[in-house]
Fold this protein.
Amino acid sequence: MTISTRRKRFNRLIKRAKGFWGDYKQNKKGLFGLGLLFFFVLFALFGPMLSDNHPVMDWDVGGRRVPPAWFKYLPGFQYLVPNLDPIDDVGFGDSDELSAWDIETNFEDSFTVTHSTEGYERGSGPGSILISLDSEAIEPSAANIKISKTFSWDYSNPPKRFRTNLNFKAEGVEGTSLNIRLVLVDAKRVEYVLWQRDIISDTIWSYPEYKVDSYSIKVKMIFPDGVFADPAHIIFNGTGEYEFYFMASFDNIDTESTVTTHLYVDDLNIELRGTSYGLLGTDQWGRDVYSQLAHGAKTSLFVGLLTAFISVSIGLIVGLFAGFSGGLVDEVSMRFADMLLVIPFLPLLLILIAILGQSVLNIILVISLLGWMGFSRVVRSQVLSLKERTFIEAARAAGGSTIHITIKHILPNVMGLVYVSLATNVPAAITAEASLSFLGLGDPSIMSWGQMLHDIVYYSAIKELYWVIPPGLCIALLAVSFVMMGFSLDEILNPRLRRR
Amino acid sequence: MSLKRYILKRTLYSIVLLFFALTLNFIIFRMAPGNPIQIVASGVRLKPEMVERLIELWGLNEPLHVQYIRYLKSTLTWDFGYSYNSLEPVGREIMERLPNTLLLMGVSLFFAIVFGTVFGVYAAYKRGSLFDLTTVTVSLFSYALPTFWMGLLMIYVGGYLFGMFPLAGTMSRPPPLDPIMRIFDLAWHLFLPGLTLFLFQYGGWLLMMRSTLLEALHEDYITTARAKGVAERGVLFKHAFRNAMLPLVTNIALQIPGLLNGAILTETVFSWRGLGLYTWSAIQFTDYPVLQAVFYIFALVTIVCNLIVDIVYGYIDPRIQY
């Protein structure tokens, strides 16, 4: 092929595409569908970037099952509190961080509080507070030290949950009895000892964990209501200055001994999980609903497009083959398609996925292997009618082989059908995947819109509209966009339907 | 070929289809991981002789073709074995649930056809008007809305917001003793799932009816009728609608598999005690005999509906080639 013919052909292609676009532009439905699809593609590509939260793995990014942050502007939702970290994760990376804390002790001479470069590596990096107690310098047998920080709470309503952290290491505690505790003081100066421990022997850094969690039974049991208490509700009972402190009390200090006691303190923080979060709130486990929606868009588009592509390809190949070769091939393939058509789709899909395993690739494969039949019949009948046309006869008379005729003459004439079928197969695949996930047979490692709706039913959260509306609406809108595009393609490519 | 031969041919073909479905059903569950003994006796250690007895009881030691023939025989005699979960005969459990599913499907299908046809005809007749635009848009959305989501919204609006309808179930517990009250109670429970399944189908019916009628209105015989001076109403009902009825009849059969999908989802959302919910719970328990039976029944329903439509078609369409 010379370059000039290639260019000619390319120009013709461009011209045809322009002509098609000119027709398509006239079609309001089609433009609406295309615009909607464009929006969803953008959302699937860039939506996940707007949120750092993993849709499945990141639990407790906000309070559990809380509405979006913007709900507070709605009447009746003024009580909503956002997430707050009044005392941010303190790694004590340098001595400046130490100076932000108030240190109080009853025997200043015996304690030295310094910054240590040692710290728990797996926590927030090196660096910690080092409290050293020189036992010789002490007069009485008891001494204590308090490291505190105050913060203001400006909301009249409590947060959903609070957690505090602490990591420590003790050296040379033999001969003393050491008690360490974490205390929260509310605006009315009521002290709540949330966690305490007697240290009787040397310890090492422990795995960083929340020492205090208002959801844990241990903390709830501090309060009179026991397991029914909501510590966040009890402690954060009004606006004002709150204080959070760590206290170490030494008792029965053996003044004869020459051992110096070292206590390293690291990762001291408090985080408040609010009663509202982000753009779309959180789910049962405090996961970000917005992030789930954005990742779900990716899943839905991926599953929908790939499935439609595979099933339409299969349908096209089977239809072309059956239509053009006729005879036994035609009979067998069409009967086979008939048989698959009478088998109820969803039960078969459910059973196959239950047997093959719940992975997204299995879902795509099974849906596309069950979705080609209708299209193959359409293609076949089109091929049958094309076969009788004179231009095919002419091509055959000119000595064109079956493959040549099929590719060069038949295929271009059924491409219109292919586009329409693609547009109608995508929403079908999206809905099928959503139904599957909704019934609990989706891929558990990735988030999809059907999975979100499944969670809603599973945790009976039908009343949480901020969580119920987005996924369903997205499925519907995405499906509508493809259906509309399918309609308009049909109208453009099928002259019978043109408005007269 | 006479009509009789046509019907005979269709019937034979349906039997072949049924046979195919049965075979597929057998193969799928042979492929399934885990053998029945592992599933039934999960967590229990059985003595080897007990395992052997169970294997004999289920005929798992026999060659595959013997198992296959026995499976065909028992399925055709409505003997589906025992549920792994409830250990009740599956046939009996299905017969308890089948009427509920048929009720749900039948009622919603009936109303969907009636409303879809009426509005579809009117929309096609008034093509381009505001009525046409709104009905098409509404039905497009109801067509595209996921069934289960629609169900959730129904529960929210009808059940929570207004508190008019029950949130789940098929009957009050305990069911009312008076038979008339019983029917009312059933209807009360049926309303929301029925409405959901109705909306699921309504859009599709309307759009199909509208497009078939539009196509029929562009045929030459319509022009002829108009030229003859037939009143517009007569053109619409006597000429266009009659011919558009044929695809409508075929579509009933084509809709049945889709309707079954919708029924499974709707029943799951509303805990409607039908075959859909039964399927769903069977999947949760990997209850293979139940799945096998339900699968067979769904295929049977589809094939029988197809057959009926084929036969009806043979009677009403004079153009059909026997």
